[in-house]
Amino acid sequence: MTLRIVFLSIVMCIAAAGAASADAGASARIIHAGQLLDRPGQAPRGASTILVRGERIAEVRDGHLDAAAFGLADAEVIDLRDHFVLPGLIDSHVHLTSDLGGVAAQIAAVTRSQSDVAYEAALNARKTLDAGFTTVRNLGDSDGVIRALRDAINAGKVAGPRILTSNTSISATTGHADPTLGYRPELHEALDRGENLCDGVESCRRAVRRQVAQGADLIKITITGGVNSRIGSGLGVQMFEDEARAIVETAKLYDKKVAVHAHGADGINLALKLGVDSIEHGTLLDDASLRLFRETGAYYVPTLSTVNGYIGRLEANPEAYTGEVLAKIRWRIGITGKSLQRAVPAGVKIAFGTDAGVSLHGRNADEFELMVKHGMTPVQAVVAATVNAADLLGMSADIGTLEPGKYADLVAVRGDPLADVTVLKAVEHVIKGGVVVRQ
Ligand SMILES: [Zn+2]
């Protein structure tokens, strides 16, 4: 008994000593920034020094200071004196499992195993991180591939952004996220993994609980039709009010936010009335939508980048999409940005989100250019990808600005993104949790 206590005390002393030395010595880093946008929405600071301890920011001071100024004997210095430094970027809407579309995606669904998909997702996570996106929200998964990737990244086993995952999108049978749409009936049993379809209140409650049990950080629902679903039933609402209400209420029971795929105003407005946290795409916002956004404080996530994916694939292959999907894509290309142009002057809160997967992974920053083209200032676009997205994700205590106590997630570019937002397409350095992950 006595021996065991002595042994345990020794083990605890060794562990404590290890933790203390790691904290005080090797993990202190100093970052010298040429200009620093520590709080997007406010004016950038000039030459600045960020002291990082472990994964988080300890101090931010004006000028370029050395280790001694912080009372340290020594510290690694990361020299970004020629760069404009801002918080790590946040994409509120990605699908890391693939960036195939149209017919190619349809074939992949019946030829790729989930093991293949997992490696693809890891590659796409790396591309996203290299593009300066240190946090993403993944809205649509199957078999927990992204849940496993999230956990592997958090454990330091593979490189990638911080991930919040909704797991599989919840959909009505024959709704936008029904995995059997467009396939022969004999294949349906294999394609529908019983994860995400719900009809009626009990079934929809159960669908939410299933996602929560499988480690979902939030809930995603497809309340209206979608551009890519292989069904010609339009882009209006596909869920009854009691079904959508059951989903939102069950999500709130587990303290999970709700992200809603919605194109038609009927679906957008039903979701907003039920108190959801974000509307994704929001292609056909009407006056009632604008009022409901303002009343509820929900975010609008425009996903303008989808058009880049559509146009790119059709240029490479005019038959990349077929039938009713092609007709919807032509419509969506023409209407891109119209809702954003109404939402910005109406004071709707905007969070950055691309729908990467429809567009290419690693090209997330192309969205900034489209946001500015459709009515936002560069400052507003940067705020959408930092402060606002952090708020939407419920992570404002950890990310979105560069302040003491937050993760040292930051990117460095040449030029001033507040003057020319396209410089964010060429991020030169990416630091996540105080570690240089790209230079
Ligand atoms: Zn999406």
Return Rg in Å. 23 Å
Number of helices: 14
What is the residue-mean pLDDT, rounded to a whole number? 92
Percentage of residues assigned to helices? 25-40%
Quaternary structure classification: single chain
Low-confidence blocks of residues: 1-25
Q: Look at the helices and sheets and give the structural class.
A: alpha/beta
Percent of sequence in beta strands: 15-25%
**Largest sheet descriptor:** 7 strands, mixed
Kindly report the spatial arrangement of strands forming the biggest sheet: 3-2-1-4-13-14-15
Give the total of beta strands: 15
N-end to C-end Cα span:
54 Å
* Bound compounds: zinc ion
What is the molecular shape? globular
The SSE order reads HEEEEEHHEHEHHEHEHEHEHHHEHHEEE
What structural keywords apply?
five-stranded parallel sheet, alpha/beta, 18% strand, 15 strands, binds zinc ion, 439 residues, disordered N terminus
Account of the 3D structure:
This protein has 439 residues and is an alpha/beta fold. Helix content is 38%, strand content 18%. The strands form 3 sheets. It has a 7-stranded mixed β-sheet with strand order 3-2-1-4-13-14-15, with no helix packed on it. Strands 8-9-10-11-12 form a 5-stranded parallel β-sheet, with helices on both faces. Helix 8 (265-273) links the parallel strand 9 (258-262) and strand 10. Helix 8 (265-273) runs parallel beside helix 9 (287-296). The N and C termini lie far apart (54 Å). The model is unreliable at 1-25 (pLDDT under 50). The structure holds zinc ion. Zinc ion is lined by residues 93, 95, 139-140, 355.
